[in-house]
Amino acid sequence: MINVGIIGVGRIGRVHGESISKFVPNARVKAVADPFLNDNSIAWAKSMGIEETYTDYKKILADPEIQAVLICASTDMHSPLSIEAIQAGKHVFCEKPIDHDVNKIKEVLDVVAKSRLKYQVGFNRRFDHNFKAVKEAVAAGKIGKQQIIKITSRDPEPPSIDYVKVSGGIFLDMTIHDFDMVRYLSGSEVTEVYAVGSVTVDPAIGEAGDVDTAVITLKLANGATAVIDNCRQSVYGYDQRAEVFGTEGCVAISNDSDSNAVISNKDGVTAEKPMFFFLERYMMAYANEVKSFVDAIENDTETIVNANDGLQPVLIGLAAKKSVEEGRPVTIKEIADSYGL
């Protein structure tokens, strides 16, 4: 049994706490910490069987009975907490991104490399049943040589403007999952990015210096081309689709819905809308990624999503941002070289 501490009990921290209690039998949450801990979050912790609640995360790092920590705090705390937890001898699961600053990610990579501890980044879509089925089909050679990868990712509604201002922008906040998915599905690295973006949802997003709608074309080292389309608002629900086309065929996934019932009558043919948002769509993926992390600790195996997997989508995101700003293709090497990678 692995004892876990969760740092940060906002929405994602609670998702992990609940998924561990329900679906990860070889782990238990011993303690949670949050500087904004209140009666509501304490009551939630007690309802999950979590007895220890702190405002100071250092109490979790100092607890010799806790072997692993889940970092679910604000993004600006991900890299410093990762380093501090590793130095305290804890295995670390860190929500994405490790940081928006590549130099800070490099510091985390250096500390992880010098330790014998496990480090996993929270790209939960790799653990979703649909995307995993695509990955397995591609890896098994069922579609032949990859030619085109298409990913659609559209949120049901835009985030608050306050969130947009600190999010790092659409490419480091939203599309980062899709960049990781391109690497995951293809098994190849991105070499060049060309992105176009616009503001079609909320003018305030543009005023905050971001775009809310984007199309990104990526060249891959294996010769394939990937296309991602994003929008911050999809009125019919959380739109999550993918396709890999190759010389011997194609594998594609559609949206999950509450049921696959289709009503056909004189008025037309009607089906369920996609699930509303990521909590509904990816709840089991959250459970599966933490289970994989715990299994890696117990069996002393490599984590499926390592620290380098946390770095690469950020480099791609920075290339996409630069591409939009300068209206040209940007290579990953150009971004990597600017950070001495």
Key traits:
about 350 residues; alpha/beta; Rossmann fold; Dihydrodipicolinate Reductase, domain 2; 2 domains; 7-stranded mixed β-sheet; 6-stranded parallel β-sheet; 13 helices; about 40% helix; globular
Question: What does the largest sheet look like?
Answer: 7 strands, mixed
In terms of structural class, how would the helical and strand content be classed?
alpha/beta
Strand content: 15-25%
**Number of structural units classed as domains:** 2
So how many helices? 13
User: What's the arrangement of strands in the largest beta sheet?
Assistant: 12-11-7-10-9-8-15
Radius of gyration: 20 Å
The CA-CA distance between the termini, in Å, is 38 Å
CATH third-tier fold name of the largest domain: Dihydrodipicolinate Reductase, domain 2
Named CATH architecture of the largest domain: 2-Layer Sandwich
CATH H-tier superfamily of the largest domain: Dihydrodipicolinate Reductase, domain 2
CATH class of the largest domain: Alpha Beta
Shape: globular
String of helices and strands: EHEHEHEHEHEHEHHHEHEEEEEEHHEH
